[in-house]
Amino acid sequence: MDNEFLQTEEAIVAMIKTVYDPEIPVNVYDLGLIYNIEVDDEKNVVIDMTLTAPNCPAADFIMEDVRMKVESVEGVKSVLINLVFEPEWNKDMLSEEAKLELGFL
Q1: How distant is the alpha carbon of residue 89 from its chain centre?
Q2: What single-letter DSSP state applies at residue 92?
C-alpha cells in the first residue's frame, strides 16, 4: 500500500468519526457500526455498515451523513454504502472509548 492510499483511508475514518447516531453520544465508527471500508485504485469507496437496531429511526440520516462526509474527502470519486445486518451488532463491537463513554467499563 502506498502512502497516498493510507492517507485517504485515514481521512475517510476521520470523517466517519464525525458521524453520530442522534440518540447515542458516540460516533458510528467507535460504536462498531462500520464493518468494512474498501478503496479501489480510482478512489471509489465501498462501506459495509450496520445499525444498532434494524428498525433504527435515524437509519437514512446516518447513512446519508456517512456518504456525504466520505465524499468530501479529497480525491474520493464515489461512495457506496451497503447496509448489512450480518453479523448482528452487539455492544462487544464498541471501541474501548465508546464503552467508557457509555458506562460499560
Answers
A1: 13
A2: G
